[in-house]
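Appendix B. Chain record.
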Amino acid sequence: MSLINRFVRLIKVTLIVTSIVVVSPLYAADFELGQKAYNTKDFKAAAIEFLPLAKQGHADAQVYIGLMYFYGKGLDQDYKQAFNWYTLAAEQGSASGQHNLANMYDNSLGVAKNYQQAIKWYTLSAKQGSKFSQSRLGFMYRYGEGLDKDYKQSFKWFAASAEQGVTVSEQALGDMYYRGLGVERSYKQAIKWFTLAADQENIGAQFSLGYMNYYGKGVTQDYQHAAKWFSLAAEQENADAQYYLWRMYHQAEGVPKDSKQAIKWLNLSAKQGYADSQYALGYSYDFGQDVTQDSKLAIKWYNLAAEQGQVDAQYSLGVIYYNGEGVDQDYKQAAKWFNLAAEQGDADAQFYLGFMYDNGKGVPQDYKQAVNWFTLAAEQGDLSSQHNLGLMYKRVGLMYKTGTDVVQNYKQAVKWFTLAAEQGTDREHDELNFFNNKILDWDQKEKEALTVLVNLEESIKKYVTASVSYSSGGDKNLYFKIEHDNLQCDPSKDLDKPSISIWYFNKQAVKMASWCRKLSNSDDRYLQLTPKSDKGAGFVVSAFRNSPSSVAIKTDTENFEMSVKGFTKVWNSLSSKAL
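Structure tokens predicted for this chain:
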């Protein structure tokens, strides 16, 4: 919802037409006596003059009698009698009678509510030029009361009424131009009609002019003019304008900074139930801005705003209960308020809620919920208040990396760590290294080299180790070991006879003997491979001795390289036969 939608109020008005214009010459003298008595507030005398005329079918007298019954002036108040007399006048074509009859149908006065009848009589009256019927039809078409919304019809009737000087229609017409409803948007026309209404002390128009000057819509931004119009509306107890005056005095916009004036207007607006002001007042007490810090008052105003759905207040209450600031620490209450704010799309609340599900604070531990909330916050890409975006992305990435109660997904982890790294956080660069392929040189002490392979699509990280060792017969040989989390093999299958597979070393095929082994004190498995023949072993050793930097290896599932740096020294460090 835009700010103008939040703060501009269109007013539905109920108007009873009290002025009679057309007078039948036949009854002119008696009618004038009645009218004179009515205007001097001698209502009983007016009734004596009007009633006989009304009974003889004088439409204008019938309207007056209807008015007197409606308001209880000179006659006992009786809506049904008013309804009857308005009906008689309306059926004779009296525009005033038609309007007043429509009003009774519109507002359930002396008759059951009936929008169709109201629209019928308002339309007949409006077509005769009744400015108040035109105004009411404008509102009915604008908001779809009793009929489908029709902005063009609404604009038409507001324009007709505004041209006759009806203030609420001037304000409404300005709003139609402002929003471009039923007419091409025109800030210039909006300002024209808002100004005409504002000069008549229309609160909504005064606020709208303040708003347009404050944000520079259709005019050069002018805080002083904004303050002028906001002040006029605020003095008439407009809560929206009071809120803006607080902002202007608090931030010295168009007026000198004045903490007392700021808090005065904020209090007045908040006490009218304006949620944004209640939140702002809570914030002021929370952090001691323009007032003495007071946690109890902060929580009071946060609560009032939060109960109305004010998202910042909901988030603030979540933080207060989470940290135990001015209240006993209560994770359940924190989760309640974070959840309400998160459902409205607040990224900070979504992060907190994800963190609470991750750690089981105030809610049952639920990693899937944690990932859900972290993701919603992460996808917004903009954390403007408390937690840096990098930490949030890192948490999502870690959840995917560990695979705890969620499907392990290296691609997602890399995605979120990368986005976090782009925000300038350092640790994510180290985390990203986890997902990079690595080739490590031969270690002289361990007599081995290592290549790490990461498959993002399958979320598998494989460790391929090459080592120089002795066979059971005492011969020096080259062995390979493959480990990864999802390795499936049967250690009992290869006890008597190894499996055979083909590996390519620098494009040369070599038969490899393969055994499935089980790690000690663990159910984890690994594959151990070595060249099946002496010829094959000789070729592999030669490849490691003579390649310039690495040996290209291809298996049935992988293409990778292993370093040759340090191999010859390791190989030569072992004698040909075990001692």
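Further analysis of this model is presented in Appendix C.
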